[in-house]
TrEMBL record:
Membrane as UniProt keyword: yes
Naturally occurring in which organism (per UniProt): Thiopseudomonas acetoxidans
Name assigned to this protein: Na+/H+ antiporter subunit G
Pfam families, alphabetized: PhaG_MnhG_YufB (PF03334)
Keyword S-adenosyl-L-methionine: no
InterPro entries xrefs: PhaG_MnhG_YufB
NCBIfam families referenced in this protein's UniProt entry, alphabetically: CPA3_mnhG_phaG, PRK12674.1-5
Transmembrane feature ranges: 6-28, 40-61, 67-88
Keywords: Membrane, Transmembrane, Transmembrane helix
Length: 95
């Protein structure tokens, strides 16, 4: 594997780890339920997406072909995380 691919994978891993850390800190530090919901719904979704994209790039170059399993997981995560955050906030508002 060449140096440029490793650099791109490292970039996505670092960005994804940073966003996951920020989302986790937001979950820990915020005081209200609605504020705590915002951290995992936004930042952690971006973090996991970045890590999955890095995994997709790495394994695509390691196996010599395009692997899109991680892309499908990322797509499902991007679609389902806001919906679940909305459902949690709607349930909290009703109770």
């Amino acid at each position: 594997m060449n140096f440029f691919v490793e650099l791109v994978v490292c970039f996505f891993l670092m960005v994804g780890s940073f966003f996951a850390l920020v989302g986790s800190i937001g979950l820990f530090r915020f005081k209200d339920f609605y504020m705590r919901l915002h951290g995992p719904a936004k930042a952690t979704t971006l973090g996991v997406g970045g890590i999955l994209i890095a995994s997709m790039i790495y394994f695509s170059f390691a196996h010599g072909g395009l692997l899109v399993h991680e892309l499908l997981v990322t797509l499902f995560l991007v679609i389902s995380a806001p919906v679940s955050a909305y459902m949690l906030s709607a349930a909290a508002k009703r109770s």
